[in-house]
Amino acid sequence: MKYDFNKVYDRKNTNSLKYDFAAERGKPEDILPLWVADMDFKAPDEVITALNKKAEHGIFGYSEPDENYYSALHGWFLSRHGWNTQPHKFVITCGVVFSICSLIRILTKKDDAVIICQPVYYPFAQSVTDNGRKLVVSELKNDGGYYTIDFEDFERKIIENDVKAFILCNPHNPVGRVWTREELLRLGDICLKHGVFVISDEIHSDFVYGNYNHTVFSTVKKEFEKISAICTAPTKTFNLAGLHVANTYISDDEIHNKFVRELGGQGYSQPNIMGLVACQAAYAHGAKWLDGLKVYLQENIDFIRNYISENIPRLSFAPPQGTYLAWIDCRKLNLSDSELENFITDEAGLWLDDGYIFGKGGSGFERINFACPRSTLKAALERLKTAMRSL
Ligand SMILES: Cc1ncc(COP(=O)(O)O)c(C=O)c1O
Fold first, then answer.
1. Which of 77, 178, 246, 389 is least surrounded by Cβ atoms within 10 Å, i.e. has the fewest?
2. What angle do CA 305, 368, 114 make, to 5 degrees?
């Protein structure tokens, strides 16, 4: 293969959130980090070359995207997801979470209810409560590791709480579901019926495996276009999170304009020049690299599955349909949240995301970021296996 995803890069002393701030966050220095969702792989060469070229030019004045930028976006979304985008519907921001928070502010008033399906990416709950809105949770159903939406509960909670917005995680972090067109249709119809706006976070959309296909929420039904914002970003896909660039697609003109005004009100206008350069290069030239990476990640999934079933059978792992996050069921260990957290940190020497932070249903689970070389993954699982002896 042209790309060597087995290569281990030393990320220590690079101001990496994942590798360099253990002590500040109360973790031992020698901990092996597989928590925050960035990857231990270098971005595609074409992205690095484009960034180098800009850096060599040496002038970093204000910038704005041109037609080549939007053409790269258009080409990517059409070829990867069958989604036909129009440039003027995109708004560039510094991140998906930033977009979600801004959307919550324009779509709802103080104390209005916003619904999420937990366990889910924990900043969803924070973005609701930090903005003074009421958090409503509909728990996903877990049937032997296969998660589904509890549609009756979802609709009942919307009615009972007069919910105004829903933050959808599509595909779903941390449970790894790639929602089907039918599931999205049912969700969307409920939202349409009750006047609920859908903020669809699709940042993991490029990581779907096997025969699973990502469905852009607004493509499911014409009427969904007006009641949704699609939050996209190249940052998970190409490992660019520190460059802070995201493209939020809002079809409804009024909401689009309100969103732009909200950004203005926060003092945000021109995007980061390096983020724009990287995003354009990645979408224009990164397809082959991503295809190679997905093969490697699929092998990592197989590796985890085999390793756990052969060596740590007290844990369960249902392979994800999408994302690069493994959701490990540790409930058979019978540990409380804090006992499990201490076991993972102190006995296994691993820095993972503890399941309970994703919501009540996450209790007893650990999330492993497997976007790393196989040797790192193997070392992590070996630490886990050895630690099991202490129980
Ligand atoms: C579902 C989801 N949304 C958003 C983000 C973060 O996006 P950003 O850095 O653009 O705010 C992540 C990162 O892990 C994520 O998993």
1. 389
2. 120
Query: Which fold is adopted by the domain 48-284?
Result: Aspartate Aminotransferase; domain 2 (3.40.640)
CATH class of the region 17-43+287-388 = alpha beta
Bridge partners (DSSP) listed for residue 317: 328
Token reading at 303: 């590796």
Query: Residue 29 Cα, ligand 1 centroid: separation in angstroms?
Result: 26
**pTM of the complete model:** 0.98
10-residue averages of pLDDT along the chain (391 residues): 90 96 94 97 98 98 97 98 98 98 98 98 98 98 97 98 98 98 98 98 98 98 98 98 98 98 96 98 98 98 98 98 98 98 98 98 98 98 97 91
Note whether 247 and 73 are within 8 A (CB). yes
Closest CA to 240 of 18, 43, 51: 43
Among 135, 131, 124, 137, which residue's Cα sits nearest to residue 110? 131
Q: Is the distance from CB of 226 to CB of 188 less than 8 angstroms?
A: no
| pLDDT confidence of residue 2 | 80
